[in-house]
Structure formats: C-alpha cells, structure tokens
C-alpha cells in the first residue's frame, strides 16, 4: 500500500471534530495526492448504522463486551470497504478515531481489559496500524465542560453521559499509549486554542510526509 493512514484521537471534548474540519481544508489545498476524511465508528452506511446503536442513549442496558465487539465490527467493515481501497490507491487517509479509541474507552474506561480489546481489534484489522496518530490531549474537566456548553441534553450520547472517573480512565490510557508508541503517536495539547492545535497538527503531518505536499 502506498497511501498514508493518519488518525486523530482524543478524549471527549478535545475538539477533534472541529480540528479535523480545519485540517481537511488545509490538507486539500496543499497535498499533491488525493485525500479522504472519514470517522469511526462510521464512514460507510453499515458502520454508521452500528454507530447509531452504540451511541443511542436509550441503549443503556448494552453490555460492555457487546459494545467493544460492535466497535470492532464497524471498524472491520469500514476498513475493508473504505480505508484499505483508498490506501491501495496512494490516497492520504485522515480518520477520526481508530483502535486506540477502543483501547482507551472500552479497555480502560469500561474496565474490560486493554489486552482483550486489543485482541478482538487485531482480528478485525488483521494488524493494520496507522502510520501516524495525532493525540489531542485534554483533561476530563475541561473536555466535559466543553461538551456541556456545546451540546444540548438531547445531543449527549451514551459516552458523553459517563462519569468523570470514566473519562479519567480514558485519558490515562491514552497517555499510556502515547508513552508506549512514541514513534507513532504525537501528543498535541488540546487545551490551547483551536487554530493553534490545528497548526501544530498540520506541521507534524507536513514534516513527516513532506514528499506528499506541493513544494
């Protein structure tokens, strides 16, 4: 595969979605290869339907392992249908979340075990790992405050409504992953302003993949 696979990770309230929108515009303007921007869970019709089931606040009885398996199932279909074909065509793929999210949210947040979640995702992805991961780090208090201010009660999904302790476990696991895989994961301080966060993300990508950009 000749394409580049970059993922954006971070706890709830890190500003991933806003950052990706701005980053997409900058990359489209300056890359000399095709770009697709996608998300997980989602990105294709089957995975978007699974996303609705996972995040629906009405599904509060969902078992933790069921949740983890649904994420892995959505990821598998997304990979086969969208990500792998794009990478095979020398496309630059920017994805909102990937396996690291499952390790942090289900493995640590839900306390079902990072190794167990890694195992089912190894099966789902056949070991595909992003070339680069930008981790937007924000503390739970800041992240949850942003969510409360930016969304109505009706817009809060199942994960938004979890306790602060849950989100602390998520952030802690993300930080552990960044320490464990320093060659892949670059940590960006997401407590900074959005424009500065986006600029830092762009600079990391451009420095690492200068050959993909217009001179």
Structure description:
The protein is an alpha/beta fold and 215 residues long. It has a single domain (4-212), classed as Rossmann fold (3-Layer(aba) Sandwich). Helix content is 54%, strand content 13%. The longest helix is centred in the middle third of the chain and has 25 residues, at 64-88. The model has no long low-confidence stretch (mean pLDDT 95). Phosphorylation of dTMP to form dTDP in both de novo and salvage pathways of dTTP synthesis. This is Thymidylate kinase. One of its GO terms (biological process) is dTDP biosynthetic process. GO terms for molecular function: ATP binding; dTMP kinase activity.
Distance between the termini: 23 Å
Percent helix range: 40-55%
Rg from alpha-carbon coordinates: 16 Å
| Biggest β-sheet strands, sense, barrel | 5 strands, parallel
Mean pLDDT across the residues is 95
CATH topology: Rossmann fold
Q: What is the 3D shape?
A: globular
Beta-strand fraction estimate: 5-15%
Helix count, DSSP H or I runs of 4 or more residues? 8
- List the secondary-structure elements in sequence, H or E: EHEHHEHHEHHEH
* Structural class computed from helices and strand pairing: alpha/beta
CATH superfamily: P-loop containing nucleotide triphosphate hydrolases
Number of domains: 1
Number of strands: 5
CATH class: Alpha Beta
Low-confidence stretches: none
Quickly give the CATH architecture. 3-Layer(aba) Sandwich
Strand order of the largest sheet: 2-3-1-4-5
């Amino acid at each position: 595969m000749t394409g580049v696979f970059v993922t954006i990770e971070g706890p709830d309230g890190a500003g991933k979605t806003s950052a990706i929108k701005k980053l997409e515009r900058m990359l489209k303007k300056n890359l000399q290869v095709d770009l697709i921007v996608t998300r997980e869970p989602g990105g294709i019709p089957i995975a978007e339907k699974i996303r609705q089931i996972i995040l629906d606040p009405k599904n509060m009885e969902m078992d933790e392992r069921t949740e983890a398996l649904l994420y892995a199932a959505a990821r598998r279909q997304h990979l086969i249908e969208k990500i792998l074909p794009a990478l095979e065509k020398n496309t630059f793929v920017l994805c909102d979340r990937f396996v690291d999210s499952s390790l942090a949210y289900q493995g640590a947040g839900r306390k079902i075990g990072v190794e167990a979640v890694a195992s089912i995702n190894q099966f789902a992805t056949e070991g595909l790992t992003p070339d680069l991961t930008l981790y937007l780090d924000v503390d739970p208090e800041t992240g949850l405050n942003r969510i409360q201010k930016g969304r109505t009660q009706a817009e809060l999904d199942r994960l938004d409504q979890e306790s602060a302790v849950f989100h602390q476990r998520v952030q802690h696991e993300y930080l552990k992953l960044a320490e464990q895989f320093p060659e892949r994961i670059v940590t960006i301080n997401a407590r900074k302003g959005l424009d500065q966060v986006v600029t830092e993300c762009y600079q990391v990508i451009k420095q690492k993949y200068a050959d993909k950009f217009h001179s």
